[in-house]
Structures are given as C-alpha cells and as structure tokens.
Request: fold
Amino acid sequence: SNLVFDNQNGGGSSLENFETGVSYLNVNAGVLWETKFAKRKKLQVGFAAHNLTQPNINFYGNDDSKLDLRFSFHGSYQFKITEKIDLIPGILTMFQGPNQQITPGINAKYILDSRGNNYRAVYLGAWTRTGDAAVVVLGMDWNTLNVGLSYDFNYSSLTTASRYRGGFEFSLIYIFREALPPRQHFKTCPDYI
Reply:
C-alpha cells in the first residue's frame, strides 16, 4: 500500500513530465465607487475582474489548463440608527466558470469615541455564504487601524466531513492619512492696488 508508480498522477501521464513548481503572472483589476450622503450615511459599490491573464496552472508541461476568469461585485450601505450605532448591510457575489458564490450579511458598528482625530468603534456582524456556511465577524477601528476576526460554521452537505467546523480569518488594515496639510486657496492682490 506504500508503493507509488509513475502512472498514478492522472491519465497515464508519467512522473517525468510532472513539474514540482509552477509560476505564472496573474493580473487582477478593480474599482470602488463611494458616495457620502451625510456624516454617517454612505454607499459603496465595487467591481473586480480576476485572472485577466488566464495563466496555465497545470503541473504537466504538455497540457493546457487555464485558470478561469473570476468576476466580483460587492456593495454596502452604512446608515445611522442611534447616536452611537450604525448598521452596514452588504453583499458580495463572485462568478468563476460554472461556479458562483453569494454572500449577504450585516455588520453593526458601535462608536466608542469620535472626537477629533480619535476614532474608535467596534463591529459585530453575521454573514452567510448561501448554501454553505454562516460567518460571525468581530472587528475594531482604532484611528487609522482596522482589526478583524471572523469564523465560519459549515452547514452544507460537507458537514459529514467538517462536523460544522470552519476556520478563523484575521485581517489587519492600515489606512494612510494625507501626508500634506490641505492647501489654502486665496486670491493674490496685484502690487499696484
């Protein structure tokens, strides 16, 4: 049972043609549009196209297996509920070849401090990958730093293997502020006045 033969790696191909390392250029592009209706009321809509170069990802040099294009669409709308609480519903949809993923959800944000340059808020959210998993999100804004932690619970037919377990994800985002102070716009008076 521990023997390995050269024709075991798919379709009678020999191990001699099997490449242990594959590298390729992969290009992605996207845009995000955001508009603010008020201080704590904004809409975001985005689109991204992935795998624009459609690289060959096969480990056999004699076969062509291109990576399918993937398209992502996402949007969110933040609005104020009370002086300290905002709701942020959103959705992410992705399409790649015959596969698709739809992930709707909502985050609730509690603002701890918003005086001047001191901004602190905590997030709690619930999302779902339809037909697959539920996701719980916990996060915090600390001035220009955002830290997030999420965990997904599998509820699809894969539960036989996963036993409803999923995985943790951790995110760390730093937002750069403008390095230069805003320009002062004024009119220049001519010398002869």
Notes: Strands lie at 29-38, 41-50, 70-80, 85-96, 99-113, 120-129, 133-142, 145-154, 168-174. The chain has a mean pLDDT of 83. The chain has one helix and nine strands.
